[in-house]
Amino acid sequence: MTLAASRTIVHLSDLHFGRADPGVVRALHDAVWTLEPDIVAISGDLTQRARRGQFRRAKDFIDSLPSPRLVVPGNHDVPLFNLIARLFDPLGGYRRAVTGDLSPTLTDEVVWVTGIDTTRPASWKSGRVDAETLTRIQASLDGVPSATVKIVVAHHPFDTSDGTGATPSLHTLTAAGIDVFLTGHLHTSYAGHTAQRYNTGGRSAVVVEAATATSTRLRQEANGFNVLRVAAGSIQVEARTWDGRTFVTRDVQAFSRGNSGWTGG
Length: 265
Description:
Elements lengths: L5 E7 L9 H14 L3 E5 L8 H12 L5 E4 L10 H6 L3 H6 L7 E3 L3 E5 L15 H11 L7 E5 L14 H9 L3 E4 L6 E4 H4 L8 E4 L14 E8 L2 E9 L4 E12 L2 E4 L1
Parallel strand pairs: 1-2, 2-3, 5-6, 6-7, 7-9
Antiparallel strand pairs: 1-10, 4-5, 8-9, 10-11, 11-12, 12-13
Helix pairs in contact: 5-6
């Protein structure tokens, strides 16, 4: 990473190799390189069905992107139909093909970025943050300077499954000092602060969700990804959208840090 006062982070999610559009994949590769990011963060669902060939294609694509890269698994990276593998070695394919590090961390004087595994093999689709992960993050934050922007990358959004609001883990991590949550899973993009989206009270953080970057399984939104420009007191989030030929900027939102966290959007 460079030593400038800001960082450019490209946020990709839901690649779904096995159902990826080859033309979009090629265009995404070129678009990411044009941005010259300091970090590429990928928030899960690298494959469609956690098959060996799909992992191989996903890994080849990831390796072709600028580094450093921080990657976490999603529920589609856990076998669905192979119940033995799903229950006894759910992320075996991911570990062998992509990385065995399920809590990757990148840090410098501007950003501290950590990834977490939110997959829940027993229920496959839904996600969770376990107590051990919360404890690890809280302990890790003790030595991080207050001005450093602290970012968590996870596959599942931090919403309760019944739609009533934020999960306890979001409250815990925001109170512990997390500034930004980067997630995917829903195939729809969003950027806002937690006080705006949830009744969290107290400190607020920035929530950024990504559309599916390359999958043909769309949910009323074209393929897309996010670009974050991060500095100590400001964050700009750009949503890039596929227009059938290239990725264009669809929306830009700006957030600033205050005494009670982040506002704007």
